Each structure stands twice: as C-alpha cells, then as structure tokens.
Amino acid sequence: xxxxxxxxxxxxxxxxxxxxxxxxxxxxxxxxxxxxxxxxxxxxxxxxxxxxxxxxxxxxxxxxxxxxxxxxxxxxxxxxxxxxxxxxxxxxxxxxxxxxxxxxxxxxxxxxxxxxxxxxxxxxxxxxxxxxxxxxxxxxxxxxxxxxxxxxxxxxxxxxxxxxxxxxxxxxxxxxxxxxxxxxxxxxxxxxxxxxxxxxxxxxxxxxxxxxxxxxxxxxxxxxxxxxxxxxxxxxxxxxxxxxxxxxxxxxxxxxxxxxxxxxxxxxxxxxxxxxxxxxxxxxxxxxxxxxxxxxxxxxxxxxxxxxxxxxxxxxxxxxxxxxxxxxxxxxxxxxxxxxxxxxxxxxxxxxxxxxxxxxxxxxxxxxxxxxxxxxxxxxxxxxxxxxxxxxxxxxxxxxxxxxxxxxxxxxxxxxxxxxxxxxxxxxxxxxxxxxxx
Length: 438
Ligand code: PMP
Prior knowledge:
The chain is an alpha/beta fold. The protein has helices at about 5-15, 70-80, 90-105, 115-130, 175-180, 190-200, 225-235, 255-260, 285-295, 305-350, 385-395, 415-430, and strands spanning about 35-40, 45, 50-55, 110-115, 135-140, 180-185, 205-210, 240-245, 265-270, 280-285, 355, 360-365, 400, 405.
C-alpha cells in the first residue's frame, strides 16, 4: 500500500517509456518510490495525489527564491515572447555577464553554459589547455556532474579504497582511460594534497573542489584549507577550480570564494543562478580563460546564453541583491534556526543526529559521530534510517532529499520552520531508534 497511488501509477507508466522511470538517476532514489508532481509555488510543491508539500529539496537546489517566484516568471515570459535562442549575442546576456563579473571575484571573463556538468568539464579543459598538463586532483565525495572526466571517487565505499593510483569510477560505462588523468584524494587534508603535488605536481593541470563539500555531509573547509589549496596550486602552476554549483549564491553573491576570501582561477556557477531554468556559468581569471579568447580550446552549446535562462538569472540576481541582500540574510537565518532546531530535537528524543552545514544548506544524518570533517567520517551514517525519516516526514507533508541535504529558500517562513520542527519532533519521537545508535 502506498500513500501516493497517483504518483505510483505515474511511476509505473513512466517506467515503460523513461529508463528507470526518470530523466536523472538521482530521482530514482525517491522515497517511497519516485514521485510525480503537478505544480509548485513558493515553498510548496503539489504532488500528483494532491498533497501540498513543504519543500526542502528546492528541486536539488536551484529554486533559491522558492518555486515560480513572480519576478522570475514575469521575466521568463517576457523574454520567451521575443525569441528563445538567437545563436548570437544579445544585450541581456552581456548585461548578465557584467553583473556576474561585478559580483564574483574570479570572474574576469565568463562563458554561459546550460548545466553544471558542462561547466565543470569546461573548466578542466581550460586548465589543461593553459598548463598543457593532463591530470586533475579531485576529492572523495565531491560531485562535479555526470561526465566521464570527473566521475571518479564520487561516493566510494569507505573501507580502504580510494588509492590515488586507482580512482574508482562512479558507475559502469565510464571510460577506463579517463582514470589515469584523475587523482582522488581525501578532502580537508592539506598534507594529502601537498604529498600528491610533491610527487605529481608537474603533471597536474588543476585541483577541483567544491568549496564546501555539499554533496556529502555538507562539510565546511577547515580554517586555512582553501587558502592552502590556493598556495599549492600557485606553487605548482596548476589551476584552482571551485565548483560553486551549490555554494553559488547560497553562501553570498560572491559565492564561497567571497565568503572564505580565497579566489580560485576558474569557477562554475549553476543551479540557483537560473532559479530552475537551464543556465550555468564558467568564470575565470583572464589567463585561464585565454584559450577560449585565442580559440585554442573550444567550449560550445546550441542553447548557451538562451534568452529564457538569461532572463531567469537576471531576475534572480536582482531579487537577491535587493535591500542589501535581504533574501540571502533571510535564508541564512531560517536555515540556521532549522539546523539548530533539528539538532536540539535529536538531543530531546535521545537520537544521535549529526546536523551540520552553513545554514542556507545543511546536512542531517543519523550518526554517532557528532561532527564530520571529511568524507570518511560519514562511514557510520545510518542511511536506511534517514530514508525512513524522509518517508515519515513526507507523510507529515514535508519533502526532503533522501541523501540528507536540506535547502532553504527565500519563500520559507518562520511559520514553515516551526511546522517542520514540530513534524520532525513527532517523527523522531515515533521512530524506532536506528540499530547503530541503540
Ligand atoms: N557540481 C556540483 C557541486 C553539483 O552539486 C552538481 C549537481 N548536483 C553538478 C556539478 C552538476 O550540475 P548539473 O546537474 O547542472 O549538471
């Protein structure tokens, strides 16, 4: 028996026509089964069975203003009425690039792309073109999109794997030859990078990192870590790439690079940039963007800089910048209150929870280790218990990401946070304590 018969029926229909019933593999993880939705507005999304769910997935992050923010919708409608994509430049695209150039420290030059995966791939190509080296250092637990070149060490098993000599592919079908160009290291461990650079520095084109490890555990960099990566990159002539697809705009309009005061050579922005419309940005210092200027390295895309994505991004940034970034302050305040409220509920119900992250996004897990500082600290998380928690929260009318990440939007209210904490309290009170934590 499912509480969601219409969703289940749509999923069964979908499976006959969409592989696994989904268009992105992460959606196949939905609890209790992949769900279908009919509409969304503000902080709420309506599922196919008519439940209005309070949404902390924000569609995996992009809907930073909430769903269908009126100014974004109006901008998109106006733009699409005047053409979809011109395969040429338009003033709005240039104005958006100028805004990003003003906001983002490393953005001396930009290019627009359509997804985060492509943007990360473009940064790696640029780093290789400038350095004329091949290898890229990436970190355990970091996700930079689904493309082969960076799809290693994304969610490796915890037991003694991840030898730098043999990076583990994320899934089947990844070019085995790509592995030799990737070095996977533990994150938040400067000595590991220093050692790898001492051995392989001459071959390393780039170090790529999520500046906060959002895709696993929502782990912030240790003090000095990003600065240390900056120094090691400089010392060895490699590019430092920040993948800001999640941190971009949640942690401020200058991204994590502004927040932590470390300017990378290249950076990606996506998700929140377009409020759910397909647009991403590749930003870089002039020297690292030069291969594009010179036409030595190619980056292309039929849909890039399309009118609708550009309009959505311009409207989103305008709202975020307004009143001295009031929307971002609201998100940060509510997110921190929710994070701390959930942690307190763990203590009240005697359930060992780990709730951590900057606030605008944070991660929750059933775990005895109260604080994680690197991927391997997530080894004992009880993921099955968290999935059960998600399912119970859904029945309370609250939609969560099954992997533990929570996103807060400008459309959430204090009342929403209170409702959520009450629901979480009921669920935690009812939940059988996860076996690992008894
Ligand atoms: N980088 C990071 C840090 C991400 O979180 C994601 C998506 N979750 C991507 C890249 C890929 O972006 P997209 O799904 O738009 O291709």
